[in-house]
From TrEMBL, chains A, B:
The lineage of its organism: Bacteria, Pseudomonadati, Atribacterota, Candidatus Phoenicimicrobiia, Candidatus Pheonicimicrobiales. GO terms for biological process: lipid metabolic process; negative regulation of DNA-templated transcription; negative regulation of fatty acid biosynthetic process. Keywords: DNA-binding, Lipid biosynthesis, Lipid metabolism, Repressor, Transcription, Transcription regulation. CDD domains: hot_dog. This is Fatty acid biosynthesis transcriptional regulator.
Amino acid sequence: MMIQNLNKIERQRRIKEYILRDPFLSDKKLAELFNFSVQTIRLDRLEMGIPEMRKRIIKVAKETSLADQVKSLKRDEIIGELIDIELGKSGIAILKTVKSMAFNRTGIIRSHYIFSLADSLAISIIDAKVALTGIARLRYKIPVYTGQTLVAKARVAQKKGNKYLVSVHVKSNHEEVFTGKLVIFSFNDKVKKKEV
Amino acid sequence: MMIQNLNKIERQRRIKEYILRDPFLSDKKLAELFNFSVQTIRLDRLEMGIPEMRKRIIKVAKETSLADQVKSLKRDEIIGELIDIELGKSGIAILKTVKSMAFNRTGIIRSHYIFSLADSLAISIIDAKVALTGIARLRYKIPVYTGQTLVAKARVAQKKGNKYLVSVHVKSNHEEVFTGKLVIFSFNDKVKKKEV
DNA sequence: CTAACAATTAATAGTTACTAATAATAGGTA
DNA sequence: TACCTATTATTAGTAACTATTAATTGTTAG
């Protein structure tokens, strides 16, 4: 019974994972995968409160069918729009958040979009051919929801040789939602022309 | 016959429109909407080559499903591919870097792509409905160039209530290029059952 | 007027992927 | 031995179909 029980729990854990990764798996397919009967799989699903395949598919479909309209964002749009910049000193960028940047369930913007905004702004204010992020400390203070417009302000706080300390503050409606401190290294690989 | 014919064509045009706008309409619902028999609706669908509701839903779902084999570039370019996961414990994801993720001048992958890989992996191993990044400490150790494949390993290092400390290590060719420590908070908006 | 034809509806059998309930079986444990 | 858990089997019923054949209705050309 002990061994059986453990097996059962382990099996259910794996079934859950499989379904999470591939909601299109029917009970029959799962039964074949795990070499258990269809009935056992069903019992497992019931015990875990996982709905049948067709309902799972409908859920997945609904989550996105409404969303789409707005297609894939161009990568550069992740960066936001540079609205002001003083090379070597500071810069401001804004990003209008859209549905595709958010978790479907909650409408909360995924953290890496905010980091992308901060990071690209920080890099773009460095007055060098090449700038690379070395270390970053990020703090997400308040969740940001789809539709909110983010304003990022970056400032070079310190400079030692080719090492810059840049602080970035992101606000939405005058409320700070994110702060970050980035250590960025600059390199002047070859000839340095005027500017960008 | 002329009038009938026109009606038929008109009806089919409208059915097509309805289905386009709402792929979840079954033949029965369409029959009710148009006040024709289910059989007529079916014939119309067949004549127009429109698949049945369930297939339409599957199509919609697959277009955006994370688990989908045929991955939509946009999303996967950012998130990478989950290749193993043990909910609540650890996970592995890989990301094949491409040109569009890099700076043109140097071919070095922009840091936020690496963070995105790490961050999404960290979030996906949290066994909760909603997980949000709160704090992050990142260290970029070696530049990554276009074409390199990144392997990210995340592990829950600590858990206190709904606060998780997740460490992520990203390697390329067995060389560590990035490490990060993320503090993630989980939320169960709709509590169902307790587990584990 | 009627045979022909299109459009529509009905009827029937078979499919998939289930739910829900009940029963049977194997392998332990107390 | 009686009980218990896990597993498997069986049966009836559901939605939403496919595929086929047949019946009905309406129009119209000869």
